[in-house]
Amino acid sequence: MAEETIFGKILSGEIPSQKVYSDAEFYAFRDVNPAAPTHILIVPRKPIPKVTDLTEADAALAGRMLLAANKIAEQEGLTEKGFRYVINCGEWGGQTVFHLHLHILGGRAMAWPPG
Ligand code: 5GP
After folding, report:
1. CA 63–ligand 1 middle distance (angstroms)
2. Among residues 43, 42, 40, which one has the least CA distance to residue 30?
3. 101 part of the active site
C-alpha cells in the first residue's frame, strides 16, 4: 500500500477541494496553485505513486483516465482552442505529490518546449 499523500486526503474528504468531476474510479479538482486560467488535476482513486508504476493490470484505468479528462476538457470549454495534458514523473519531472495525477491546463496559449 502506497503512503498516503495529500491527494489521498483530498480523495477521502479530509482536505477540502473544488470538485470538477467524480466517478467510481477518478476524482478531479482545481489545482490550488493554478499555472493557467484552467488548471484541473484528475486523480485515480487507486493510489498509484507514479506513472511508471502503472502495470498491465492498470492499462484500462490509464485509458479511462484520458477519456475522463477529455470529458472534463469538453465540459470546461477547452477543446475548441486546445489545451495541454501533463504528467510529471519523479524528481526531475517536477513531481511533488506521489499519487498519480494528470494536469489539465487550458485557457491560454501554452509555450513549447516547456521550461
Ligand atoms: P505535481 O508537481 O506533483 O505534478 O503536481 C502537484 C500539484 O498539486 C501542484 O500543481 C500543486 O499546486 C497541487 N496541489 C498541491 N497540494 C494541493 C492541495 O492541497 N489542493 C489542491 N487543490 N492542489 C494541490
Report:
1. 22
2. 40
3. yes
Q: Which three cell numbers stand for residue 33?
A: 496553485
Q: Is the pTM of this model over 0.85?
A: yes
| Contact residues of ligand 1, CB 6 A cut-off | 6, 15, 17, 29-33, 41, 88, 94-97
User: Whose C-alpha lies nearest to ligand 1, atom 4?
Assistant: 95
**Domain 6-106 homologous superfamily, CATH:** HIT-like (3.30.428.10)
Segment 62-99, tens digit of pLDDT: 999 999 999 999 999 999 999 999 999 999 999 999 99
Q: Nearest-CA neighbor of 101 among 109, 16, 32?
A: 32
Residue 102 CA to ligand 1 center (angstroms) comes to 11
